[in-house]
UniProtKB/TrEMBL annotation:
Residue stretches of biased makeup (Polar residues): 1-12
Name recorded for this polypeptide: MFS transporter
Bias type Low complexity, positions: 13-26
PROSITE patterns (UniProt xref): MFS
InterPro entries named in the record: MFS_dom (IPR020846), MFS_trans_sf (IPR036259), TM_effector (IPR010290)
């Protein structure tokens, strides 16, 4: 099938994308002045404020449980490996399910998904509480139910983060991410101490842990209520059939493959969390063996990182106004090298507390910078998948690092494990300095609204027909050849990110001014989806390429569908 179409090949039917008319206006970039002056501005929006308060309550319960659960494992077993596996049980579900969580959040209604997975987490924690109160809990049950609870957390998180742009203007997104960190780390500053206090208030650790688990189960009710009363209005609606799960996963990986900025962010996230995992997984062992502290002392140490994180959340807008993201990330890595070495050699509490506060500050600076990079460099149609893959990499670093450093501590010592993790971060620092994050102008990834209709072909293909090849004929003056080739090769990543499985540009040997762009889609439906996925930044690049085409008419576009034998009617 071959059809000539004089319209732009990325033309968009006005019915294909239905933006939310009441959503905040999207802006492509954030100026330092705006960031510095309005660090708390997102809280002026009621929906975001309600979400933030509910999240803070839930995070408080989660951090209470994190401390109580880890300390309960310390009471149940003396094995550093089993204690470190508590961090693995918390992180492994994201490593295994992150991309699927993002895919489901991009396919299905995010509000309903969030309600389901919040209820899942509540049920898992409630069962932990029952087992703790009855005194039958052991290391295996503790690890298993911690793992099940974090399956819910892994499936919940991409959708939870992806709804933020629906609640606030895009210009407020960096501040919103910082406030989300403040929520988590305000809870981290208070929750571990409260969890340790509850553990210390009872003679039996299982009773204290049971009350902590019960309070955490109740904390999920706040989030469930906010989600239940929320009348969601998505920023992006597609008129096309929803993607299938595995196809959505494949599209997410394809987008990452042709997104260098996201690749740099992911590599930095993995290297950082792999090294820092030694702090999270072995801090309870440091408190118990090196400092002779009980549950309350461990809670205070854990809360020290939370205190530093809260300070970072408040000061981060000013820090971002003075330093680049690359500088912030480099300084944070250097700080954590110092914190790891102090944990290895210090045997008194106060130096460790001070460096843990600084470590908490560096943690939020790093996590906020990387998270903002993902959210501002992934368009709405794939944002949850990008966040899911990011969390996969992030928690994968924590999970793998926890096993590695726990194994080293088990077979050598905690001091050796901390020194090895500090050395790993120091060795990886020169590599990460070459991987730039958030450099230059932030692209405008809002959906581009075309007024041209979907191409109508004489032989209209079915949605599943394919593969489909699209040919675009350009006539380019010889003197602009190099300029055109440079621009159209930038367009290559746009085509491949949005669904093309092959791309090429060719010059006619008989007519040096004639160039033909060719790209292939798996099906006609996938081609229609690629048109919906075009962002304003993509359209700007496409217009730059088309502007070099000479003549008054638009480039000629041909749509070709793979020829299959047609069965004759009997």
């Amino acid at each position: 099938m071959n059809s000539s179409d004089q319209t732009v090949e990325q033309g968009q039917s006005s019915a294909a994308i239905s933006p939310n008319p009441s959503a905040p206006e999207a802006t492509p970039s954030v100026s330092p002045a705006t960031t510095r002056a309005s660090g708390f501005a997102p809280l002026r929006y009621p929906l975001f404020r309600d979400r933030w308060i509910a999240s803070t309550v839930s995070n408080l319960g989660t951090w209470m449980q994190d401390t109580s659960g880890t300390w309960l494992m310390t009471a149940l077993t003396g094995s550093p490996l089993l204690i470190a596996l508590m961090q693995t049980a918390a992180s492994a579900p994201v490593l295994l399910l992150g991309i699927f969580a993002g895919a489901t959040a991009d396919i299905f209604d995010r509000r309903r998904l969030l309600l389901f997975w919040q209820a899942w987490q509540m049920a898992a924690v409630a069962l932990l509480a029952v087992l703790a109160f009855t005194g039958v809990i052991g290391p295996v049950w503790l690890l298993l139910l911690t793992f099940l609870m974090n399956i819910g957390s892994a499936m919940n998180n991409p959708a939870w983060q992806a709804i933020v742009p629906e609640l606030i203007p895009r210009s407020e997104l960096p501040n919103a991410v910082a406030l989300a960190s403040a929520s988590n780390n305000l809870a981290r500053a208070v929750g571990p101490a409260l969890g340790g206090l509850l553990m210390a208030a009872f003679i039996h650790e299982t009773t204290g842990a049971g009350w902590t688990f019960a309070l955490n189960a109740a904390s999920f009710a706040a989030v469930i209520w906010v989600l239940y009363v929320w009348k969601r209005q998505p920023l992006f609606r597609s008129a096309l059939p929803a993607e299938r799960l595995m196809g959505s996963v494949e599209t997410g990986f394809r987008f990452l493959r042709y997104s260098p900025v996201l690749q740099a962010t992911f590599v930095r996230a993995f290297l950082f969390t792999f090294s820092v995992a030694a702090v999270w997984s072995l801090l309870a062992v440091v408190a118990h063996r090196h400092l002779g502290q009980g549950a309350l002392g461990y809670g205070i140490l854990n809360g020290s990182m939370g205190l530093g994180a809260v300070l970072a959340a408040f000061l981060l807008p000013r820090v971002r106004a003075r330093f680049t993201y690359d500088q912030i990330l480099a300084a944070s890595s250097a700080q954590y090298i110092s914190t790891l070495l102090v944990l290895a050699f210090a045997r008194t509490t106060w130096p460790i507390i001070l460096f843990l506060i600084a470590g908490g500050f560096a943690w939020v600076c790093t996590m906020s910078s990387l998270n903002v990079s993902v959210q501002l460099n992934a368009p709405g149609w794939v944002q949850a998948r990008a966040l899911g893959m990011y969390q996969m990499v992030f928690q994968g670093g924590l999970a793998i690092g926890s096993v590695v450093w726990g194994y080293v501590a088990e077979h050598s010592s905690v001091k050796v494990a901390m020194c090895a993790s500090a050395a790993t971060m120091a060795v990886s620092l020169p590599l990460t300095l070459r991987l730039h994050v958030m450099r230059g102008t932030v692209p405008d990834l809002s959906p581009y609204q075309w007024k041209r209709p979907v191409p109508h072909l004489e032989l209209e293909p079915q949605p599943e027909d394919g593969p489909v090849r699209i040919l675009v004929d350009y006539s380019v003056p010889t003197e602009r050849y190099n300029e055109f080739v440079h621009a159209i090769h930038q367009l290559r990543d746009v085509r491949l990110r949005s669904g093309a499985i092959r791309w090429g540009v060719f010059r006619d040997g008989n007519d040096p001014e004639r160039l033909e762009e060719s790209f292939v889609m798996e099906s006609w439906l996938e081609y229609l989806r690629s048109r919906e996925r075009m962002t304003t930044a993509d359209a700007t690049l496409l217009q730059t390429v088309r502007s070099m085409h000479k003549g008054d008419e638009s480039p000629r576009v041909t749509h070709q569908v793979y020829a299959k034998e047609v069965q004759a009617a009997s």
